[in-house]
Design goal:
The chain is α+β, with helices and mostly antiparallel strands and 402 residues long. The protein folds into two domains: 292 residues, Zn peptidases (Aminopeptidase, 3-Layer(aba) Sandwich); 82 residues, Sandwich (Immunoglobulin-like), CATH 2.60.40.1930. Helix content is 27%, strand content 28%. The chain is built from eight helices and 16 strands. A nine-stranded mixed sheet has the order 1-8-7-9-6-4-5-3-2, with helices on both faces. A four-stranded antiparallel sheet has the order 13-12-15-16. A three-stranded antiparallel sheet has the order 10-11-14, with no helix packed on it. Helix 6 packs across helix 8. The longest helix is centred in the last third of the chain and has 22 residues.
Length: 402
């Protein structure tokens, strides 16, 4: 995290932990996203942090910055990402480096989701700046997400970019350069997930709290991250704005892109000292924060994925299409298809698995249908629409904004 004395106080809200007696969420932790999240490895994250710590220092002005960038590039390539490059930018007469890896989108490649973390570290002793939490942990998360996406065989609808930003500690210069270039090229970035210090779990807290630092133009991402944390991890999300301008998500906000900043919940005394080493970090905790960002990104990607052509009066299969618009406030429409005459139900559940609406329940002839849902009486968050028919079911996520 960048050194700064500028702090803005924001509101703090802790979301409730779901009851252990709550009914399983339709399409929840056992769904396709849960299967992908299970591949996030604490051991893999630890290996990346150890290597980055092993460089001794990652100060922006150190002579080893080329070696650090080359190693990060090699890890993306080893994971199977074929489009990897190093982009240079000038800072105080030195060429600084952003490492950028890209997994191209399939059906909607023009829309982009960015995962980012800064590669540099800082202490008052330039030759010793291990930066295990700040910010080897964030870089390890970005590397791990790229590895898992490739290893799982997931083919994203949107283009996914993974970026290691240089020179963050002296003023967010790598992310400033990247976000400005994206804006000048008018690239449609629909979400930016920033990982900065995700490995230190405060031993003074009973619950595994972590911070979601939110921005006015991206409240929906904070809501989505909160829901994903409660659904897929034991983490307790805490929304905050205190450090909103102190990490690489801030330049994206300044360029009118929607970002969110994931941060560990503890105030580590090793921050910006020679004692910021891996021995003080919790790898399972870091893996869970990594899962939160990945789950949110996958949810967004699935929402923009192109579906079958609408309007087919004789569908070949039963299917539940993605609602539109999505995210929505407060009304949305949900298309679905019935391949043969059957009794069909379409119901909506909240993230605790409680049924909140029945939109269809009865005999359907073969054909294409559409139902509307007005969620004006419900709180913002993630909801699940589930269609059931004789012999099968399908579930879609829906995001209600306020």
């Amino acid at each position: 995290m960048v050194r700064s004395t500028l702090l803005l106080c924001g509101w703090l809200a802790v979301l409730p932990v779901p009851s252990s007696t709550a009914r399983p969420i339709p399409g929840g932790p056992a769904d396709s996203i849960g299967v992908i999240l299970a591949q996030v490895s604490p051991d893999s994250i630890e290996a990346s942090i150890r290597t980055l710590q092993g460089f001794g220092t990652r100060l922006w002005s150190s002579s080893n910055r080329d070696s650090i960038a080359s190693w990060i590039l090699s890890r993306f390539a080893a994971s199977g990402v074929t489009d990897v490059l190093i982009d240079e930018f000038l800072y105080t007469g030195t060429w600084q480096l952003n490492v950028i890896a890209t997994i191209p989108g399939t059906s909607v490649p023009s829309q982009e989701i960015v995962f980012g973390a800064h590669t540099d570290s800082y202490t008052g002793t330039p030759t010793v700046a291990p930066g295990a939490d700040d910010n080897a942990s964030g870089v390890a998360a970005v590397l791990e997400i790229a590895r898992v996406i490739i290893a799982s065989g997931y083919r994203p609808a949107c283009t996914l970019r993974f970026v290691g930003f240089g020179a963050e500690e002296v003023g967010l210069y790598g992310s400033r350069d990247y976000a400005a270039k994206a804006r000048n090229a008018d690239r449609p970035i629909i979400a930016m997930f920033n990982f900065d210090m995700i490995g230190y779990r405060n031993p003074a807290t009973v619950d595994p709290e972590f911070e979601i630092i939110w921005y006015e133009n991206a409240r929906f991402l904070a809501t989505l991250d909160s829901a994903m944390a409660l659904m897929y991890t034991p983490l307790v999300p805490v929304k905050d704005q205190t450090s909103y301008n102190r990490s690489d998500s801030f330049p994206f906000y300044l360029n009118n892109y929607p970002p969110v900043f994931l941060h560990d919940g503890g105030a580590s005394r090793a921050y910006h000292t020679v004692f910021d080493i891996i021995d003080s970090l919790d790898m399972s905790y870091a893996a869970d924060i990594t899962r939160v960002g990945l789950a949110s990104a996958l949810t967004l990607d699935l929402q923009v994925r192109d579906g079958p052509a609408p309007g087919d009066p004789l569908p070949a299969v039963f299917s539940l299409e993605q609602n539109y618009p999505n995210p929505f406030n407060p009304g949305t429409r949900i298309p679905y298809r019935v391949s043969q005459a059957s009794n069909v139900t379409v119901r909506v559940y909240d993230m605790l698995g409680r049924e909140v609406a029945t939109l269809a329940d009865g005999w359907h002839a073969q054909g294409s249908y559409s139902v509307a849902w007005n969620a004006g009486a419900h709180a913002a968050g993630v909801y699940f629409c589930r269609m059931q028919w004789a012999g099968g079911s399908a579930t879609r996520r829906m995001v209600l904004l306020r």
